[in-house]
Amino acid sequence: MDDIMSTPPRSRTVLRVGPLKDSLERTLAEDYGAYVLPSEPAEREAFLASHGAEITAAVTSGRTGVDAALLSALPNLGAIVNFGVGYDTTDVDAAAARGVGVSNTPDVLTDCVADTAVGLLIDVMRGFSAADRYVRAGRWVTDGDYPLTHRVSGRRVGIIGLGRIGSAIAKRLNAFGCVISYHNRHRKPDAPYEYAESPVELARGVDVLVIAAAGGSGTEHLVDADVIAALGPSGYLVNIARGSVVDQAALIDALSDGRLAGAGLDVFADEPHVPAELIAMDHVVLLPHVGSATVETRAAMEELTLRNLDEFLATGRLVTPVVPPGSP
């Protein structure tokens, strides 16, 4: 309650929704006098009844977002400033219908997320994490050499979602001599890669399928059992997008039955909860959603988040709008 009742350093119009980077939380509290939305339902309801009409800007992240119910409790909200490139947890359609702007932090995290995708691909195909566990368990001494794995160079790689991040992944894999193809909502005329009309068609012709599509209802389970079956028992899947894009149950079934060779996953359906079946698999590499989690990238994301907030508070506009304010 101290966050709500203390005297702010300036007019209090900013609301923090969900946890953010520690330094960003401090800046919002100290420099903007930001309210913090309570997490407990009764406290949240009381807070919104008392202060909802004061809020003109909300700062959140792709892991929390602003849904339609919260939007309706903030009648004077003008902008949702998102820390991160993904914004599928925010009801963008409801925001746009109200004329509420939405921003994100594109470009600044592209390189690190692309690096993560390539790292996962190499790790799962070469078995480096599993080999590390093999050495630490003393099995090199007791069981002999680690089993042979598969080469990365020259493999056929399909990318679902050839946006900024997907293109950066393709650029990196070109250096490995990989043959790139892709599926997108629309063909990209300037892309020097073969286009597949569907995820199934793409999966059928590649050794590795990399998921770099945006999250949200439009891509939920875009990679389903049929796509996984088309990838086949010698195929690998890498997901650095959103857990919702892949049918996680179908993925687990295929990995369990030997109908997929392996997977590298940075995202999951119900984070931070990872199914025990995946944890038990030695041919799966698991990361705790750290694609952009470097000191340099998170600092750049924080800076761009604050630039968006400052621009909105000063001019009513956003620096990197997904939805411009005032444009239903």
UniProtKB/TrEMBL annotation:
GO terms for molecular function: glyoxylate reductase (NADPH) activity; hydroxypyruvate reductase [NAD(P)H] activity; NAD binding. GO terms for cellular component: cytosol. Transmembrane segments: none annotated. Residues 48-322 form the D-isomer specific 2-hydroxyacid dehydrogenase catalytic domain. It comes from Mycolicibacterium madagascariense. Residues 118-291 form the D-isomer specific 2-hydroxyacid dehydrogenase NAD-binding domain. InterPro entries: D-isomer_2-hydroxyacid_DH, D-isomer_2_OHA_DH_cat_dom, D-isomer_DH_CS1, D-isomer_DH_NAD-bd, NAD(P)-bd_dom_sf. This is Hydroxyacid dehydrogenase. Keywords: NAD, NADP, Oxidoreductase. Belongs to the D-isomer specific 2-hydroxyacid dehydrogenase family. The keyword Oxidoreductase applies. The keyword NAD applies. CDD domains: HPPR.
